[in-house]
User: Fold these one by one.
Assistant:
Number 1:
Amino acid sequence: MTDIHIHLGRENGRIRRLHGVNNGPVCYGSLLDVTHYYKKAGIPLVRLHDPNWPNAREVDIYTIFPDFSRDPADPASYDFSRTDEYIRTVLETGAKIVYRLGVSIEHTKQKYYVDPPADFAKWAQICIGIIRHYNHGWANGFRYQIEYWEIWNEPDKPVGKTNLMWGGTWEQFYKLYGTAAKAIKEFDPSLKVGGYGATSVKVKSFMDGFLAYCRDHEAPLDFFSWHIYGSDLNRFATESRYAREELDRYGFSRAESHLNEWNYFDGDFKTIWLPENEFVRRGVFERMKNHIGASFVAAALMQMQDLPIDAANYYDGQPTALFCGLFDYYGVPKKAYTRSRRLSSCASTPNARRRQSTVRSPASMAAPEQTTTERPPL
């Protein structure tokens, strides 16, 4: 059991809208649509990564720009049709977007798109072509004013000798990030550019190398993104503070900290997908979706209110995903959805204030209580 203590006499400012999600309200080619529930919950921010699985990966670079030999300056080199439709459905919920520039995770033995692009500067120009289309009306595009552009996802995630998200070296990723971030900011300084969707801030050597590269090469870093999957609530406090401290230490005190993938998970990623583990697998994901996962979601949303986290995105919002605890496969809301909707209602209440809290979870009951503190607004 997790103990949560609310200190009614200690006020910590207004309730913050940290109940963002990953991916939009439609799946199965828009056959299943939970837009009305997104609106009722007031989902504030949708990050686009691995969308609409198991259909086409609508926001990936190779989906939009399928032939890398083509000219990024030529509108005919792009196919925006599927991505246009997907982004339209997201924006119709009223949410803002974090657009992940890169590729989706590849679980297949053969990897197709996770290797570094052959030409980093050209890849950056493709990214700018996408931005021009959605923000500047280029190529029969739109003026959506998408602010957040995230470069890649989990390049620090090795599985044995194979990385599911990045097939190059760490140094190659740092260079790709720097090249693209500089090009995007030069094209439109008003945009917020960041990355890298860290598997965990515990992969310290990768994070140190990345932040040092950005500092030494003056690569823009408007936000730093990182992830948590687990069952220990104390991680939200310790890892968010560590991320903030490291950003400050490397000179990025103005960079926002985005926990843009998180969920309850009490399994072992190394073994859960093995043959004959199907009953273990079912148990893990059913707990994510039932009252256990919902209780964790409620506690995490409360705790994050007073942590140095500027934006957060639960994984996942689309109703077909294994990791979605908000809806079942039919689009029916689960208990975790009601927690998010209640937070939205509280945040929308005039003069709503939050109270300081302390949280202790069973995985670290021997540890001292973590008293939450608020980071001043950016």
Note: The two ends are 35 Å apart (CA to CA).
Number 2:
Amino acid sequence: MLNFIDQGHGPAVVLIHGLFGNADNLGRLGTALQAAHWRVIRVDLPNHGRSVMGYPMSLANMAKALEQLRQQLGLDRWALVGHSLGGKVAMTYAQSHPQQVSALVVADIAPVGYQTQRHQSVLATLTELNHQPQLTRKSALQSFNQAGIDSGTSAFLLKNLRPDADGHYHWQLDIGAIVHHYPDIIGPLPEHPPYPGPVLFVKGERSDYLLPEHRPEIGRRFPQAKARIITGTGHWLHAEKPDQFNRHVTQFLAPYQG
């Protein structure tokens, strides 16, 4: 169900990308964790990359897919690192399967619902492009520019546009499924008992995804939570300052390799 890349040796840690991403997005972190003697499993979320398409992608269902992967791999426990949507999936999994999670890192997201218009221009443009014949990277970039989507986001989205054997471009996203399930994706986490284990929230200083008003909900669900802020970064903190981000994650996870 979930496509994954499994590398390295040691205790297992799974890396989970954000909305419109894929298993490659946290590749630099994966390399750093392998060097720190972790077995690193990077996944494509449902309806992303090479994972199953047409999947009902509520947070609960995506956490269920993650649990199926753990059982498939025969792992007793693993640590989790998730960015953005991947962080919400990781939090949902940790609360619903606490005995299987040795530690949790959440990158620039809170366990709350967000406003529905946050990705509307991206979703509308992707929907339009999804029905466009003879799609090219150039035409897709022109559409993103016309929609006022910034260059960094455009470059990130274009990573999902891949040619087939005949040279025709296709999205490695189920755009229709993402649009349909978007209210679930941006909604709050399902209700489960608090996760009692170690948690690190890492915030990009300039990002508005993780804010002081989210602290009560974080504390309610994750009573052992700690926080770090990476200055001079936004929501893409792992790409903007990868050395700092990777250091925070590897140092936090180090005590939980046993």
Note: The chain has a mean pLDDT of 95.
Number 3:
Amino acid sequence: SEKQELLKELEHLKPRLEPLRILVQGPVGAGKSCFINTVQRVLLGRNVSIALESSTTAIQGESFTLSKHGGGYYPFVFNDIMGLETKGEGIQIEDIKVLEGHVLEGYKVSPQSSKDDKRYNPRPSPGDRIHCLVNIVPADAISRLDDSVIDKMRTIRKKASEWSIPQVIVLTKVDNACEIVSQDLRKLYHSKKVKDKVEVSSHKLGIPLNNIYPMKNYHAEITEDTNVDVLILMALRDIVNFANDYVESIASESLPGS
């Protein structure tokens, strides 16, 4: 089956550098933790909770390793930064040094965050850097997102672009955005509503349409749904391949600012 093929491909992934680091950003309530948990659930084939929903602890660079079904870990990790709040809360733009690998696990985000923090990494190696940026955007609320949140996401995206870091949008909650898709996820690619949401998110964040992945996270469901799994695995395969391509490209050149 398509699901088994995708799982096998991810199982046999041997990136040039381990782990590949994937940064997940998005507004509060977009489903970042839910996405990370859904990915782990699909990879393991059972219900899990590794990322706490709606965690408001101001820790940047918290990373999640993903367990393999037969033991061991996948050669990629998700780094989650706190949700982008509207008014002055959330990630500070000067703290996006996480992209360049300046931030070690557990670095506290605060207005006083400085280079004196012992978790600040002054000389990051290519392995400390972020290798792919994943923007989590809720399909049902994309049009209503506060401009300041979009601005923060665009600022981080622009910084990632300066470093040529590949970027995607994972468009969550498509089932809330379209009644037909809510009843049958296989209608996803025929839904005009979802197509509109994909175009709006592309326009707002400046990410091309072919780098946008509409999907549904597991939320309240106990049983698994192959349609959900395949969408998640297709996105994940591309994300880790983009990250690996980036690692290959930086291995052959000297890094700016290093």
Note: The radius of gyration is 18 Å.
Number 4:
Amino acid sequence: MKRLTFFMVAIMALCLTAIAQKQSSKTLVAYFSATGTTEKAAKVVAEVTGGTLYEIQPAKKYTSADLDWHDKSSRSSVEMADAKSRPTLSSKAENLADYDTVYIGFPIWWNLAPRIINTFIESGDFSGKTVILFATSGGSSISNSEKELQKTYSNLKWQKGKLLNGATKEDIKQWTKK
């Protein structure tokens, strides 16, 4: 009987340790949203993961004229044409060291992540963190954005991202469990 009691106590201790470790794992859901679409998806990701929501904001907000992709001289067109462009952030994410997992969300521009995502990644220390991308788009998949960011920041620990166009809360729950 003593052996059985000891065995049961040991199993309970292991379970409690696993639960405590899971709860101590912190998630950051960082996102850039020019029109509000990606923001809506980010809020659901934060809700289902229990993550902290952080908006990646440019120092100078984008106007509708800045976002006019038909105009080759618009701000977004000029930034996307220059791979070295790094729009300035209005602020840096605080306490990045506290997070184990970082979801990064953005609208897809010209089949890529907007250059402000590069600025965000370069502004912090992501070593040892799991980085997961999510995006919204009017017509592109996330694959090229993922490929380019993973190539540029090959030292980061990436997990498969997802395009969240029309994703339901249940879809996002299933994706984040993986």
Note: The radius of gyration is 19 Å.
